[in-house]
Design a protein that fits this description.
The complex is a heterotrimer. Chain A is mainly α. Chain A contains 13 helices and no strands. Classes of the chains: A mainly alpha, B alpha/beta, C mainly alpha.
């Protein structure tokens, strides 16, 4: 346990180092957010929708702010997979799954906090209909924050699952690019899930991708009433357990395969 | 007027220091890579350029091959200023970087050569005859259809040489060409360079850490340190001037005896080995040997010449750098 | 000139053969690209499904705009990968040194140093979107319209190459600013796959004056669709795209100036 904690701390410190890249990243992400909101505003003009534009803008800003939680991958781990050194790690006596899980947690948490919080402050200063709206209700805010926890666990589990699959294939780039695409499409980053066709939404909201950010955001904007929270949180927790289970199973299988094949 | 004329060449780099705690921006620091280096080289000369890491060797080569612009000083090579008309100038030179490939990694080397033919706008006849000559001299015929990545380091270096000589440059720069090569490859490379120099009168300037490269090839050697030229002359003279100390290691049968050596001679006591550094001009070798023999029965003894690093270090000391 | 063109074609041929050395990986990545660009197009289809139209532009119009951007952007990636992808790492690794000792311009050699043939599937998606958009919008094709399309794509490629040169210039000065530059390149791609007139003033100015996608892409596309942008006359569809060449020319000049400050790394 202590080992995992120190890995976590070390990784946090590393994330705070690249200040220049961070500022550039914030500017870029804010710019993408502005473009998207401008586009949705133009689309709304003349085509009013059941979901108000203020919610869509809020959705966009929350997605953009936590973008790093979704996509940031561990470059060291990727390198190790690419050059094959991962075999040394997998054959160590400690659970490498949790080792990298904790690293992912630190990286995603710090990366998105350092970028996300300034962005959220910026977005809340924008005029109404452009920026971040306050939460629908105090209960909504509390539940959204609560839902972010299992969502975050799902994200880290998905990252490790992707890595586990990547280890299996000879060429990691193709497969991980496709998995990333699935992730950013169905988590609502490219297009808010609330704007997908209604029939799709029923299915999409049950997929693991919707548990990451979509569910907390909808609790925040009030699209999911606080009364539904229990159901939503249960779905999230079930997914977190499934994803972690799958990931651990895959990593263990990879490890056995390595030992059998001798690397 | 010599073929290469270098006068007071200066180059400073700005490096950014690591950001200190609590400061938003990193501070800058300037490093003087060359502090006014001057020399001249005649056409057809084979010159060695030595010095420790960070001495400014590569910077000089990069300036003379048009890659970098100096901050001060002049350089004329064959009447041209390297960094002013880079494109015209580089037609007449060839450069081989020991640690950097200039050929294409995944394609047969002959395809790389054929692309170089177009890059240098060579006529088909010139290209064919030169390629034939070089592949024979470098024994590359059987590898022509092999992708670069499948060649050994020695074969790769030969291919690099072939690529940089296809356009018949008057001047060839070699930046640590023998780095990492095995003995056979080193010897072959040296033979080839001698041949190219004799056959075509190509002026060759090479930087190296390998004193044997210099001994085998260069009639003249320049030593660079801390951005300044420390020595310019023949290798034997350099050795005579600075190679003043020798190291002897002796092993004795049984325990190491107590030896009384005169002042000024340093020695290190190993477990059953004694290593002594001395200056033959001060304490004659014969006298030392006599002292050592008196002390006990010598089972093994080796006399080592100075290596380049100690030599340079001795030079620094003498030049008060 | 002929020699230069021949050299470019030969370099490209060689790079493609290099890629083909790893066939299965290449095919896999091509498929991944197809899925990715397909996903981008899917987003537009979903937008059209949900909203029907974007101000005066119909769904078919939107597919046409998307196709223009897709084809231009990925054509640039295929032919200009040296600039759009490789250059910063060439500076970092010192590989740029090996180009400086050749009797050709650096810009041209960098262009010859990379290609990304996997993007061909992205272009296929873009072409499909163009065809779909043109059919749904009922475009009656004529020679001038075909010329306008060709000119627009060519000029947009030049513009995109020019914008990527900004990153190249930054990397010569060892400024790590990839994400900042991405705002203008990838941000431009995202924003300008929809017509410029839907955006508020500042974004309009940015993408008309600074990174003139509106001029190279939207003015001719609107002309082809028969809905001239801002009611501008037809000849503007042939003149405004030239701004792409202008941006590229300026950037090449700045790039060459920047090369003077190049300090090679390594020993």
């Amino acid at each position: 346990m202590r080992a995992y904690f120190s890995v976590f701390r070390m990784r946090l410190r590393m994330e705070t180092q690249y200040r220049g890249a961070m500022i550039g990243g914030i500017v870029c992400q804010v710019f993408f957010g502005l473009i998207l909101v401008a586009l949705y505003r133009a689309l709304y003009a003349g085509n009013p929708q059941p979901v108000p534009i203020e919610h869509v803008a809020t959705y966009v800003w929350l997605q953009q702010s936590f973008f790093r939680m979704l996509t940031s991958t561990d470059p060291d781990l990727l390198d190790k997979i690419r050059n094959g050194n991962i075999s040394y790690d997998l054959c160590r006596p400690v659970s490498m799954y949790w080792f990298y899980y904790v690293r992912a947690m630190a990286q995603k948490l710090m990366g998105s906090m350092m970028r996300g919080i300034p962005m959220l402050i910026f977005a809340s200063l924008l005029p109404k209909g452009w920026g971040l709206e306050p939460p629908a209700s105090p209960a909504g805010l509390v539940l959204a924050l609560a839902a972010l926890v299992p969502g975050f666990l799902c994200m880290c589990a998905l990252a490790n699952l992707t890595m586990g699959i990547t280890m299996r294939t000879l060429d990691p780039r193709g497969i991980s690019a496709m998995l990333d695409l699935l992730m950013i499409s169905f988590s609502g980053n490219i297009l808010p899930l609330t704007l997908f066709p209604d029939s799709w939404q029923r299915v999409l909201s049950l997929l693991p991708y919707a548990q990451l950010l979509d569910a907390p955001i909808r609790l925040y904007t009030g699209e999911y009433a606080p009364i539904e929270a229990l159901r939503i949180l249960s779905v999230q927790i079930v997914w977190a357990a499934i994803l972690i289970g799958l990931g651990k199973g895959l990593w263990n299988a990879n490890r056995r395969r390595l030992i059998v094949q001798g690397g | 007027m010599s073929y290469i004329e270098v006068n007071g060449l200066k180059k400073t780099f700005t490096v950014r220091k690591k950001r200190e705690k609590g400061k938003l921006f990193r501070e800058k620091q300037t490093v003087e890579a060359l502090k006014g280096v001057s020399f001249s080289v005649e056409k057809g000369e084979l010159v060695g350029y030595i010095g420790p890491n960070g001495a400014g060797k590569s910077t000089t080569v990069k300036i003379l091959s048009g890659i970098l612009t100096p901050d001060g000083g002049e350089a004329l090579v064959g009447g041209r200023v390297p960094w002013l008309e880079r494109r015209e100038y580089v037609k007449h030179i060839g450069v081989v970087f020991g640690q950097r490939s200039q050929l294409w990694w995944d394609v047969p080397i002959v395809d790389s050569f054929s692309l170089l033919k177009d890059i240098y706008r060579l006529s088909a006849a010139d290209y064919e005859s030169r390629l034939k000559e070089l592949t024979e001299a470098l024994q590359l015929e059987e590898f022509l259809r092999t992708p670069l990545r499948l060649l050994s380091l020695g074969q790769r270096m030969r291919a690099e040489l072939c690529g940089s000589l296809l356009h018949r440059p008057e001047l060839l720069f070699l930046d640590e060409p023998t780095i990492g090569l095995d003995a056979v490859s080193k010897l072959a490379l040296r033979d080839f360079l001698k041949w190219e120099n004799a056959e075509h009168g190509t002026t060759i300037m090479l930087t190296t850490h390998d004193m044997e490269d210099i001994a085998a090839l260069c009639s003249r050697v320049m030593v660079l340190g801390h951005g300044q030229k420390l020595y310019d002359g023949t290798l034997p003279e350099l050795l005579e001037k600075f190679d003043t100390v020798r190291t002897v290691s002796v092993k004795y049968d049984g325990a190491l005896p107590d030896i009384k050596l005169p002042e000024g001679i340093s020695f290190e006591r190993g477990e059953n080995e004694l290593s002594i550094t001395y200056a033959p001009s001060v304490f004659p070798t014969a006298k030392l040997l006599a002292t050592l023999q008196e002390a006990g029965r010598i089972s093994e003894m080796t006399l080592q010449p100075e290596n380049i690093d100690r030599l340079i270090a001795a030079m620094y000391k003498e030049m008060d750098l | 000139m002929m020699n230069t063109l021949k050299l470019y074609v030969k370099s490209m041929g060689m790079l493609i053969r290099s890629h083909m050395q790893y066939t299965s990986s290449f095919i896999m990545q091509m498929l991944a690209q197809l899925v990715m660009e397909g996903g981008e197009m899917m987003a537009v289809i979903l937008v059209v499904d949900r909203f029907g139209s974007l101000k005066q532009w119909t769904g078919g119009n939107l597919f046409f705009f998307f196709g223009m951007m897709s084809v231009s952007f990925y054509t640039t990636e295929i032919f200009g990968r040296g600039i759009t992808g490789n250059f910063p790492s060439m500076v970092r690794s010192g590989q740029l040194d090996t180009l400086l000792i050749r009797p050709r311009t650096i810009f041209f050699q960098v262009l010859c140093s990379g290609t990304d043939p996997r993007r061909i599937t992205c272009i296929a998606v873009g072409v499909a979107s163009l065809i779909m958009g043109s059919a749904m919008s009922g475009v009656v094709w004529s020679l001038p319209k075909a010329l306008a399309l060709a000119e627009s794509i060519l000029m947009s490629c030049m513009l995109i190459l020019g914008l990527f040169l900004i990153e190249a210039i930054f990397s010569i000065h060892s400024v790590k600013s990839v994400e900042l530059v991405n705002a203008i390149t990838y941000g431009g791609r995202s924003a300008c796959q929809y017509p410029i007139d839907v955006y508020p003033g500042p974004l309009k100015v940015l993408f008309t004056v600074v990174a003139p996608f509106a001029l190279t892409m939207h003015v001719p596309a609107a002309y082809i669709l028969g809905k001239p942008l801002y009611g501008w006359p037809a000849w503007t569809a042939f003149v405004t795209p030239l701004s792409g060449a202008a941006v590229l020319a300026v950037m090449i000049v700045l790039f060459n100036r920047g090369m003077r400050f190049y300090r090679s790394t390594g020993s």
